[in-house]
Amino acid sequence: MLFDVRPKEDKKDLYDRDKEVDEVKESVNRKVWIAVYGMRRVGKTSVVNVAVNDPRYIVIKLNLMRIYDPKKKKYPKTFFVSLFLESINEAVKKYTLGGRLIRFVSNVLGVDENSFIDFNLVKIRPRLKKFRGEDVSSTIRELDLLAGDNKRTLVLIFDEAQELMKVNGINFSSVFHDIYDYCRNTTVIFTGSSVGILENMLKSLEYEKPFFGRFIRRIRIERFNEQLSRDFLLKGFAEEGITVQEDVINDALRRFDGIPGWLTFFGSEYSFRIRHGEKQVNVDDIEKMAVEEVRKEAKDFILGTQSPERYSAAILALDRLGGKGSVADVTKVVSSILSEVPEPRIYEILNRLVNMGFIEKENEEYSLPKDEPDRKGLVLAGKDVMSLVT
């Protein structure tokens, strides 16, 4: 269903992403490493899921948002190792892999094989520190051999891959160098919503020894244009058996600005309310639910920075400027909200907000998001934090 709010797995449920899916599939088949990136809720995960939903692939997916904490500058190695081994364990069960792979992991951890198969955290957790970067590489080599033996391709997916930069104790340049050079049946997919941060990570990989000179293809997922957004909503409502007035469609297009995640959420919630007897659905109520989601995300991020009041003031300054402004404009307004703040510091803050995907930059002008949930949620988060720290 088009209005299923969970990431899509089947191509029939994914709207208008044939080009992107084909690019991912061709890259995987040619063993070209790729980065799939774009703003939040634009459908990156769905594109990758559909592309790798193929019996010729063995897929290992590490969702790094599971270790994400905006208040932490670094993660202990054990956070990553636990996630890595859990993902391996899921693949062992899904693809009925075993034998030498289970024995290898169990031997490194110093536990019996059943403890790993059952993923007995009581026994495994104390042993995670023993697992080194070299063991990560060796485990992937074992998986690569299993994939080759079964005439399959191993696909490693690092979802929200920019979080790898915060993991202590593992040299990922060395790990990826080892995979690139020695795992002939393997390809790697990086995804990320913090586009600037992810790009910095990819560049550091491409230009840092020992991974230097390796190529990572970029595939960007864009929001829908107005025509695609309208068609998506009309087809989704037709699937739901719901008739929707033109003015409601136009209102949704204005509010959600082509972001598939918000359009899907709107369509799902609107259909649900109509089916359950609401004669006149209040779209404001649906929008508020989306706004609250962004408000929490943005507030957690701002509170995790070194200068929550300055980040909040920069966001509020953009709002006071009508949604966009230059560094000089924002600095002037921030200095009226707080005591005087140096322009270079505001420049740094604005660019970090861009890199994290909270605001946008075009030429030399910064702007709040155009869609209502992201813009309103971000501004409300700024106001919340400002009330806490001043």
TrEMBL record:
This is AAA family ATPase. It comes from the Archaea. Pfam families: ATPase_2, TrmB. Residues 15-263 form the ATPase domain. One of its GO terms (molecular function) is ATP binding. SUPFAM superfamilies: P-loop containing nucleoside triphosphate hydrolases. Signal peptide: none annotated. InterPro entries: ATPase_dom, P-loop_NTPase, Tscrpt_reg_TrmB_N, WH-like_DNA-bd_sf.
